Fold each of these.
Amino acid sequence: MEEGDGEANVAYYCLHKFHWPPSLFLEMTAREKAFVIAAICKKTAADKKEADRLRSKKR
């Protein structure tokens, strides 16, 4: 995730990717938030790896 308030960034991501209202994420338990954050980190890392792979293929 980028700079700023970490929870707000994750809530923003959830809003745009999952169409969740921010309150849904913000009202989760700490364990639920940790799971969502870990899943988002795993997904964004995989997406970045795939984008890098495709970019290197173009060269």
Note: The CA atoms of residues 1 and 9 lie 7 Å apart.
Amino acid sequence: MLAEASVAGVKNAAQAGNAVLKNGGSATDAVEKAVRYFEDDPTSQHVAEHIGIPVANDLVTELEHKDWEQCKSYPDGVKKFFNTQWGHENTGAVALDSLGNVACATSTGGIRNKMVGRVGDSPIIGSGGYADNRSGAVSCTGHGESILKVTLARLILFHREQGKSAATASLQYMGERVKGCGGAIVLSSTASPHHAWFGPQLKRTSCTRLNPKEDFTEMLK
């Protein structure tokens, strides 16, 4: 039930962003709308009452405390848990508007016991996200430090510009080079969506306006 609700949340967010484009909005407005919609949508939250999961009154739950104890060492937490079994809880979106402009948006879920002042990949242009009207737009998720070290989003578009299998090659390089896991959604400048991951899979969907009177929504996962 939780998985179905999460997938529905992804679909609804994509449709919300698509609605902005249908009304003449920019690609930037569309990706912002999609990410904000998903973050605020109760069907996408892991503790939504209406799908039968009680809301925790105390944020320090027994399960969270257990995870915290296992991850007091930040490096151990990343190696043993973040890159294997934890969901990254990022939300990302990419869009192409009627003027040919592309845009990306990326939120972040953070990492347990991170150092004070740590900045992940999400706010760094070229790492957590990148957009170029000549090649496309990318939004990434995964281990922030690994993504930062290879400037993953820009690397993906660089590979696209070279005619290579962009996302897959870039993510494999990141996994081999810095041993990190991650995923990415990619939109080419011709509105062709792509996705790839190195590690746990990610939920994604796409909305395409085939003609002025018809929309096409595809659940990619």
Note: Residues 94 and 104 are 4 Å apart (CA to CA).
